[in-house]
């Protein structure tokens, strides 16, 4: 299929040849070290929440680290700006969704600034800008040209609250809308779909290549795609010779025990027979909304289906447990070997015999109680020429033979459905299509893009206002020129976000969504950070669109599987401290509580004002009803961005959920104070010139200090570049600070070494606490003109072997004390060793005036055997 779409790739060629030089990236050459770090762009709701703060702190810290290491970092930010909240807010307040969105973007951008997020603002985009959605429309037209966007009458999910259609992916397992929470209704409507199923195979296959994705996300996607290898079998319906019913089965070897066929209620044949069979008609109406685990059936009175292998004729039912949207919407019923079929049979044909065709490999057939679903079995005598084969062997042979007989054959099925992108809402990218009575569906010519969303004054009700704007709807057909009507559906906003990471790479391109060179050079995204809630929807749609754009030659990755995201990190949730009344389990507001600070315990004590009791504390998802939300603005205002950044990283590994506990931030504050204080102490030292290289001739204390710092530096570097354990980074910062503080206070290292390591410390903390790092640097530089490169990442130096060694002194088998001295201590010989040990207080205590029978000196252990007494 990919090969087929490649032939249609003129557009890709066009794109390649006409690509404008990307404006921003033109100063980069192929060899420079580049890295693309991306955090999911937010919906501009107006305020950042703590979850946003967490993601952006992660991506920002990593970006700063890579910049310090000489990488050309792409770290963009933009706005997923179409969608229902803007529209609903506009309806509620009588304002223009565009204005509402703009204001929110402005506010949130300021908040991102407050948290010191260093985004490439020159790449900024908003999906609601005509300059952006022009290209969302262009991509839609590409899909259309390649037969991948089509309109179809289908049974769809209708959200009665938001008054719009939803994609399957947007309905949860309880049949509720992911957005409004309303129970979704089924409706028959003509809608636009994207042919994601044409990429089902690749989407499933390439999950294997994503070695740097969380296993959980991959298995969620695999399950969603639901690739199933089985067999299609055609059962002829007697009477009408040319008609047949196709079924999909993963157990074709059970065909000898097929006792009926079952059709989904919306199977075309069921609909057909319902027109002449009133009782079937009633059955459909009564049961169409039943849950899929119910086993009701209705016999199609006039039909019998012929088993293509045995020639047996079996009855056909309409059945509630057969899914209309899977496989062939029909199953062959095998009561002997399938749980659901067994249940159906007992309910609809009680007492009728059940015919098995599989039996246990070893042991007596009687041990197989029905339904017998094991697969390690042999075919019984009923299986004709297949008798004696294992279930698996038989499956393969039968599948091949059915194919040879033109009555079926191997088939791969997917659970994935095509992506329904029509939305009957205003605030989205208009689908660039015109309906003409004569020409049918006509794409809007590229030169007429974008199809601009008209401004509506006073958006009133939910539902689609576009259809009520004659100036928008009435156009001339681009093909024949006669009056025609514009499509009034807008696109699912997941379409906008399925390609934004391409646009960032070439955001000013006016002709194309992005240039071939820019995309091919910088994709895949090296590190994508986002919420696990997008593990299926956004991730699958993005992979699909990236693969489609790749298949038509619009970009080329380093490996040609067109995967857009090399590494995926799903950050855990930020949970709020929740106070619960032990008496009634209710959630308490801050105003219900009294916070007593207990300076002795260095802890806060909380009591409930009304009862004087202590509340129960737990950490839960932040929500208004639990009064446990935290406003990033307030927190940053109170503690400053650096403390908040360090704290949020320190509290938990990035992919685990984080219990936000404000009272613990004091630890981080204490560290930052110590660090600034330390910079002034070091700054006051009288060092004129300092070389960042470690001086030779270190004394023992200096060697010990050097080694400790080198180990920490290595750990910090590793955490940023490999393990992403950013919580460890912060604790290493603290260890580094303490070690330096200790060394300075006790004066065990010379001043130039203290200064040199202060500089290293200031550099390595920069990714997480950039403004404190700068402040410390200023303090250190005051009145001095050391010329040090404060931006680069410090190199790791080798560990230095120490001149001293610890010797363990053992007396009569008991370890007594440790003597730390020069390495060649033992070379002097037994007498001198004993003499020197006796000069030590411990030596005198254990050895003086004792009768030493024997002394054994081994590496680091000096062992004495004394005479009794
Ligand atoms: C006969 C059979 C005998 C089956 C047996 C199973 C066990 P997956 O793995 O999900 O692909 N099936 C097929 N289409 C269906 C539909 N539209 N609605 C409900 N069930 C359907 O499962 C494939 C199996 O699910 C198929 O194999 C079919 O039942 C059922 F001992 O066919 B089997
Ligand atoms: Zn026309």
TrEMBL record:
Keyword set includes Lipid metabolism: no
Positions of the Methionyl/Valyl/Leucyl/Isoleucyl-tRNA synthetase anticodon-binding domain: 706-819
Location in the cell: Mitochondrion matrix
Enzyme Commission number(s) from the entry: 6.1.1.4
This protein's UniProt keywords: Aminoacyl-tRNA synthetase, ATP-binding, Ligase, Nucleotide-binding, Protein biosynthesis
All copies of domain Methionyl/Leucyl tRNA synthetase, residue ranges: 36-173
Domain Leucyl-tRNA synthetase editing: 222-402
Record-stated family: Belongs to the class-I aminoacyl-tRNA synthetase family.
NCBIfam families membership: leuS_bact
The protein, known as: leucine--tRNA ligase
């Amino acid at each position: 299929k990919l090969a087929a779409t490649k032939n249609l790739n003129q557009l890709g060629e066009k794109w390649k040849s006409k690509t404008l030089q990307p404006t921003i990236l033109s100063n980069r050459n192929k060899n420079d070290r580049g890295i693309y770090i991306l955090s999911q762009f937010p919906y501009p709701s107006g305020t950042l929440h703590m979850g946003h703060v967490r993601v952006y702190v992660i991506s920002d810290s990593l970006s700063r680290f890579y910049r310090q290491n000489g990488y050309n970092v792409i770290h963009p930010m933009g706005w997923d700006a179409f969608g229902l909240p803007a529209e609903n807010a506009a309806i509620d307040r009588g304002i223009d969704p565009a204005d509402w969105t703009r204001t929110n973007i402005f506010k949130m951008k300021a908040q991102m600034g407050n948290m010191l997020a260093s985004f490439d603002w020159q790449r900024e985009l908003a999906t609601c800008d005509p300059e952006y959605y022009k290209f969302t429309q262009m991509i839609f037209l590409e899909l259309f040209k390649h037969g991948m966007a089509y309109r179809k009458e289908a049974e769809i999910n209708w959200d009665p609250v938001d008054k719009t259609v939803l994609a399957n992916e947007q309905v949860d397992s309880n049949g509720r809308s992911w957005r409004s929470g309303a129970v979704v209704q089924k409706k028959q409507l003509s809608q636009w779909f994207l042919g994601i199923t044409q990429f089902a195979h690749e989407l499933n296959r390439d999950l294997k290549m994503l070695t740097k994705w969380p296993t959980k996300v991959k298995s969620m996607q695999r399950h969603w795609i639901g690739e199933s290898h089985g067999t299609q079998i055609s059962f002829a319906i007697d009477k009408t010779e040319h008609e047949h019913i196709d079924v999909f089965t993963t157990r074709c070897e059970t065909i000898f025990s097929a006792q009926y066929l079952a059709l989904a209620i919306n199977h075309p044949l069921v609909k057909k027979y319902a027109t002449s069979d009133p009782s079937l008609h009633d059955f459909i109406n009564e049961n169409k909304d039943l849950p899929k685990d119910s086993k009701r059936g209705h016999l199609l009175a006039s039909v019998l289906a012929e088993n293509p292998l045995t020639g047996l004729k079996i009855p056909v039912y309409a059945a509630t447990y057969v899914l209309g949207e899977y496989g062939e919407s029909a199953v062959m019923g095998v009561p002997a070997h399938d749980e659901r079929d067994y249940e159906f049979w007992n309910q609809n044909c009680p007492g009728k015999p059940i015919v098995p065709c599989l039996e246990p490999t070893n042991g007596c057939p009687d041990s197989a109680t029905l339904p017998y679903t094991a697969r390690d079995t042999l075919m019984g005598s009923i299986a004709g020429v297949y008798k004696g084969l294992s279930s698996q062997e038989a499956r393969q042979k039968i599948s091949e033979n059915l194919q040879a007989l033109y009555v079926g054959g191997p088939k791969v099925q997917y659970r994935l459905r095509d992506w329904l992108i029509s939305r009957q809402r205003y605030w989205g990218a208009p689908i660039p299509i015109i309906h003409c009575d004569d020409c049918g569906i006509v794409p809007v010519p590229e030169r007429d893009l974008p199809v601009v969303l008209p401004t509506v004054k006073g958006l009133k009700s939910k539902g689609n206002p576009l259809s009520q704007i004659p100036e928008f709807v009435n156009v001339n057909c681009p093909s024949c020129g006669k009056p025609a009507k514009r499509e009034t559906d807008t696109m699912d906003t997941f379409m906008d976000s399925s390609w934004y990471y391409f646009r960032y790479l070439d955001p000013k391109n006016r002709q194309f969504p992005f240039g071939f060179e820019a995309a091919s050079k910088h994709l895949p995204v090296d590190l994508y950070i986002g919420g696990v809630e997008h593990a299926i929807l956004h991730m699958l749609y993005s992979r699909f669109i990236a693969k489609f754009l790749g298949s038509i030659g619009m970009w080329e990755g380093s490996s040609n599987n067109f995967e857009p995201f090399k590494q995926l990190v799903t950050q855990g949730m930020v949970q709020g401290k929740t106070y619960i009344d032990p008496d009634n389990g209710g959630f308490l507001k801050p105003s219900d509580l009294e916070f007593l600070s207990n300076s002795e315990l260095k802890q806060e004590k909380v009591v409930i004002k009304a009862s004087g009791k202590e509340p129960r504390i737990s950490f839960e998802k932040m929500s208004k009803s639990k009064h446990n939300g935290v406003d990033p603005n307030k927190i940053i205002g109170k503690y400053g961005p650096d403390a908040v950044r360090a704290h949020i990283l320190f509290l938990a590994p990035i992919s685990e959920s984080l219990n936000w506990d404000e009272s613990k931030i004091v630890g981080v504050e204490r560290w930052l104070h110590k660090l600034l204080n330390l910079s002034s102490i070091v700054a006051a030292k009288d060092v004129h010139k300092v070389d960042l290289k470690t001086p030779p001739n270190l004394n023992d204390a200096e060697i010990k200090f050097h080694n400790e710092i080198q180990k920490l530096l290595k750990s910090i570097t590793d955490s940023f570049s490999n393990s992403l354990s950013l919580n460890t980074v912060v604790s290493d910062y603290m260890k580094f600070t303490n070690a330096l503080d200790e060394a300075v206070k006790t004066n065990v290292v010379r001043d130039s070494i203290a200064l040199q390591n202060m500089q290293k410390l200031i550099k390595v903390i920069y990714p997480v606490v950039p403004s404190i790092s700068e402040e410390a640097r200023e303090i250190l530089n005051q009145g001095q003109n050391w010329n040090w490169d404060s931006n680069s990442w410090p190199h790791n130096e080798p560990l230095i072997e120490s001149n001293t060694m610890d010797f363990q002194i053992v007396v009569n088998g008991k370890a007594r004390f440790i003597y730390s001295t020069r390495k060649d201590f033992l070379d002097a010989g037994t007498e001198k060793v004993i003499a020197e040990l006796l000069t030590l207080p411990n030596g005198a205590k254990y050895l003086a005036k004792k009768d030493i029978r024997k002394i054994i000196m081994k590496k680091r252990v000096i062992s004495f055997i004394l005479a009794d007494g």
